[in-house]
Amino acid sequence: xxxxxxxxxxxxxxxxxxxxxxxxxxxxxxxxxxxxxxxxxxxxxxxxxxxxxxxxxxxxxxxxxxxxxxxxxxxxxxxxxxxxxxxxxxxxxxxxxxxxxxxxxxxxxxxxxxx
Length: 115
Ligand code: AMP
Prior knowledge:
By secondary structure, the chain is an alpha+beta fold. About 25% of the residues lie in helices and about 20% in strands. It is built from three helices and five strands; from the N terminus they run αβββαβαβ. It has helices at about 5-10, 60-75, 90-95; strands spanning about 20, 25-30, 40-45, 85, 100-105. It is globular and about 35 Å long. The chain binds adenosine monophosphate. The site of adenosine monophosphate has 12 residues, from loops.
């Protein structure tokens, strides 16, 4: 596994972030360079490098992330209007940070397809 990522530093409070939710398994904070009116990152505290390298041991964490995406959407007030969950995987997928993260995008009618 490569060196410590920026997300592990946020989890460890070594660098600041605008954290809006945290529990034993995950943390959610605002993306520093938002691409939608609401752009949150939902990150497992366990370093899963990317979804393409998750293992069956990660099943509980992965399920938790999906359910917390729904819960955060409710708490932050964008559940009703809708939202998008994006996971970038690997070079062609646009992954910049090798620590699994869900982008939660909302706050306007998002365009599709996204390519
Ligand atoms: P990805 O391209 O899917 O790996 O997404 C990485 C995301 O992390 C990008 O949307 C960045 O804007 C975001 N990001 C990078 N550094 C920070 C930071 N310090 N705080 C919040 N978001 C960050």
